[in-house]
Amino acid sequence: MIVPAPAMLGPGEPLGPEGYRLEVRDGEARIEAEGAAGRFYAAQTLRALSADGPPRDVAIADRPRFAWRGAMLDVARHFFGVADVCRVIDHLAAYKLNVLHLHLSDDQGWRLAIGARPRLAEIGGRTAVGGDPGGAYTQDDYREIVAYAADRCVTVVPEIDTPGHVQAALASYPELAGDRGSDPYTGTEVGFSTLDAHDDATYRFLDDVLRELAALTPGAYLHIGGDEAHSTSAEDYRTFMARVQPLVAAHGKRVAGWEEIASVPLLDGAVVQYWNTMGERGPDLARAAAAQGARLLMSPADRVYLDMKYDADTPLGLDWAGHVEVRDSYDWDPATLVDGVGEEAIAGVEAPLWTETVRTMRDVESLLLPRLCAVAEVAWSPQRGRDWEGFRARLAAQAPRWDAAGIAYHRSPQVFATPA
Length: 420
Ligand code: NGO
Prior knowledge:
By secondary structure, this protein is an alpha/beta fold. It folds into 2 domains: 1-63, Chitobiase, domain 2; 68-383, Glycosidases (TIM Barrel, Alpha-Beta Barrel), CATH 3.20.20. The protein contains 14 helices and 13 strands. It has helices spanning 36-49, 82-94, 119-124, 139-151, 167-172, 200-216, 234-250, 282-291, 301-304, 326-330, 361-368, 371-380, 388-396, 399-404, and strands spanning 20-25, 28-33, 58-62, 68-74, 99-103, 105-106, 109-110, 155-162, 221-225, 254-258, 271-274, 295-298, 346-353. The strands form 3 sheets. Strands 4-5-8-9-10-11-12-13 form an 8-stranded parallel beta barrel, surrounded by 7 helices. A 3-stranded antiparallel sheet has the order 2-1-3, covered by helices on one side. A two-stranded antiparallel ribbon has the order 6-7. Strand 4 (68-74), helix 2 (82-94) and strand 5 (99-103) form a beta-alpha-beta unit. Helix 2 (82-94) runs parallel beside helix 4 (139-151) and helix 6 (200-216) packs across helix 7 (234-250). The protein is globular and about 70 Å long. The chain starts with 19 loop residues before the first strand and ends in a 16-residue tail after the last helix. The structure holds ligand NGO. Residues 190, 227-228, 258, 275, 305, 307, 318, 354, 356 line the site of ligand NGO.
């Protein structure tokens, strides 16, 4: 029936900005909500209830467990145009996810035109993994994505990855590379590139980028990456983060970053994205973030990295964090994942889709669905209202709709009796 399962609030419980009451009686629907988001989610629920004909009578009182319910698309390793990104936003909105994090820059490509630094899109935009075609959004393209998302109650969180993962920027502006090399890069190694933490030109560059990015961003957060800066010393990383965070704040935004940023002092209001379930530092970094008063965004790779293979036969994807089947994405509780990081420290849940091996929308959808539905329910529904068997049955019922829409979802044997 519905994905995700409704919270079923008691009569006196507040709906909050995203909650709603929906009553259907004798074919007539009545909606109550405090704001536009609540009304939108009520309508999405009604749409799901009406998918196979007139809805039966129901009374639902619902609101989300977490305020940040997201997915990330890496448009840097492979580029996806406006229409593709809008289709991904449609999938998010259908399951009441409200954040699209766009990974806009990496070693292999730079994907957003910056007026003050035109070579970023011109040169950095040309490349992609494996010599595949590149691409970059004009600022109008980007505004179109942001507006399409806003119409569906989705906020775009843009990421410019720093101080590592910057080879496309160095190839565009070799003076930022010093003597470290500025050749374009189309491989898939990580951790070899870095900005210079001691060069003022680095911060003039980032100020230009962050100023234009902030102006394009109605949401509160700019994501500054911070992951896998293996060519930046710990001391330089600290220096760099102490100078970049105030730039974000100066443009009126809050900082988001991968878990590594918790190793340095953070500005108030920062969000730290926990991800690395294979390394030893992840849980310590998550606790360090909470101890600083930052809030955690839970993206455990062995649960919600949607670029991980489902099983050994999955043709696409990576497996450094193991295989991630639908049930792995569903059967976990964000509030008990890391000792010392409880419900109140958690901003939400986000599922990243990295695209080293992902080149087409069919590729994207086969990794996204059905795991995105599991992520959506983890982020929306209270833990006590969730169980795998019930979810599995509701998920299987989605398939005819996906078939009719020509969506290339993965027919996981955990969910579907018969393969494709
Ligand atoms: C890591 C790495 C990315 C890779 C991804 C592949 C983070 C935060 N940094 O996650 O560069 O694309 O794994 O799964």
